[in-house]
Amino acid sequence: MLLRPVRDTQDDAETVRKLAEAAFGASHALKGDTPPNPPSAARAARSREKILHIVRHDPAGSWLAEDRTGQAIGVAQSHIREGTWGLALLAVLPGVQGKGVGSALLQRTLEYGRGCLRGIICCSRHPAAARVYRQAGFALHPTIRMRGVVDRAGLGKVEGAAVEGGPRDRDLLDSVDRRLRGGAHGPDHDFLLRHHRLVVADDLAGSGYCYIGDDSDGAKVALLGATSRRLATRVLSAALLGVGEGVAVEVHDITAEQQWAVDVGLRAGLELRAEGFVCFRGLRPPTPYIPSGAFL
């Protein structure tokens, strides 16, 4: 097995995308979940853009594993934002899982972040992944996933002002990030703003934001942070109410500390299920906060 950096090319981005799609598709089947729909051309392009975004900002944090024939069999991507390290992706082809590929890739990304005091990983329910992350010194916090069509009457009106956000809100976003997770997301907000709707709230009581995106599978909350539960409830409620009629929405990676989010989901009529883990090292679970799977 050879480990090499992911190159800043469309070919490497497509290799990573297809490898992750194969690995996660097999993981869904293993857990008995319904396989995801094949990605649209637009969704595949967005995935490649995200892969290359991480490569360009953290070239030493992205690695491919290849077998003796040069076939890609595993990938890991990580990034560092103001001293906070995050694992954006770890995927291994089903046929070579359990042979040390994932551990080798994780170790290479951990070496990249060895100077960071804080680390975050969003982990699936796959038992092997949870074991590897725990052995690496991360605390595992079980999570909830919420999904369904929003019951607008049950959710009710938003209490307080929540408005459409944009690039002008970067200072607000970075300030909230630093308070909650010790480091701003920085350039990752540029990617999120291109592909998601942003809802912000900012008043004398504090600040909050929520990204939500739409695709062929429905809508999904991508990242949320706020300085209080009240502000978090406001921006999440406003984001859910902004989803089109009859569109299914998902909210992932809700830890036990985020009961305010569970309350919003229950009022909105969303179904709850146990999902995976959010893993932390060097910090307690930020709250009120819902991480992004890739940008954490």
UniProtKB/TrEMBL annotation:
Residues 1-156 form the N-acetyltransferase domain. InterPro entries: Acyl_CoA_acyltransferase, GNAT_dom. It holds the Pfam family Acetyltransf_1. PROSITE patterns: GNAT. Keywords: Acyltransferase, Transferase. CDD domains: NAT_SF (cd04301). SUPFAM superfamilies: Acyl-CoA N-acyltransferases (Nat) (SSF55729). This is GNAT family N-acetyltransferase.
